[in-house]
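Regression test case RT-17, inverse folding.

Input:
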């Protein structure tokens, strides 16, 4: 049996060591290259995601609807569903406008009630509902208003000394009031003598006026109802308001 010479044996050992070093170097190089490729792909993915989200939130196609969800917008749908301070949530949960006034339900003329019902019917398909609560006297009215305020509903008093506005401004104000009141808004109309002074105390900033002329409280209710309907049409951008 032949035994390899010592010099040959040493050369083989050195050659094996060199091959191991080359293999280790190659593994390190491949690891670095793979990490770089993954990082680059992650960066591209994040940039594409940001671009997609920015495009979605800053553009609305003509067929856009708050009730429509595209297949690629799960994130946006979840955010809209969970948000509690946005107008989108207010739209989805429904808006409630309440008119409180002193008087009798059947105390007005029939044509006034018929005209009021016209706008009430037009509002039925929308998410905006309007109801009227009649009170026997000022004391009952004050208690009801305080109860609404206790529930954090927004309360607006109708009074000649209140702030007058255009229909466009009223539309903006109404939806802002609804947002402030958690989608609950109360308009208060006084009786033949107007609102009681005790009710107006401390609420001067929460008063609005329908005009400088004098109206019966039933006619004021009709005018208010028409403006509420008009405000909803202004928000939708329909041709009703010109």
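Golden output:
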């Amino acid at each position: 049996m032949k035994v390899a010479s010592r010099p040959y044996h040493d050369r083989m050992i050195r050659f094996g060591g060199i091959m191991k070093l080359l293999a280790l170097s190659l593994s390190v190089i491949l690891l670095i290259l793979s990490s770089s490729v993954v990082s680059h792909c992650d960066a591209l993915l994040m940039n594409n995601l940001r671009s997609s989200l920015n495009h979605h939130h800053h553009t609305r196609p003509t067929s856009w609807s708050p009730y429509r969800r595209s297949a690629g917008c799960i994130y946006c749908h979840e955010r809209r569903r969970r948000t509690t301070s946005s107008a989108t949530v207010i739209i989805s949960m429904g808006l409630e406008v309440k008119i409180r006034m002193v008087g009798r339900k059947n105390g007005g003329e029939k044509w006034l009630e018929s005209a009021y019902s016209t706008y009430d019917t037009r509002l039925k398909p929308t998410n905006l509902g309007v109801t009227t609560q009649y009170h026997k006297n000022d004391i009952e009215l004050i208690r009801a208003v305080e109860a609404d305020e206790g529930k954090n509903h927004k309360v607006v008093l109708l009074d000649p000394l209140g702030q007058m506005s255009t229909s466009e401004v009223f539309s903006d104000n109404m939806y802002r009031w609804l947002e402030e009141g958690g989608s609950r808004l109360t308009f208060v109309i006084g009786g033949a003598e107007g609102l009681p002074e005790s009710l107006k105390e401390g609420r001067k900033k929460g008063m609005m006026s329908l005009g400088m002329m004098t109206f019966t409280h039933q006619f004021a209710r009709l005018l208010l109802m028409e403006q509420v309907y008009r405000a909803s049409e202004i928000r939708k951008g329909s041709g009703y308001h010109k």
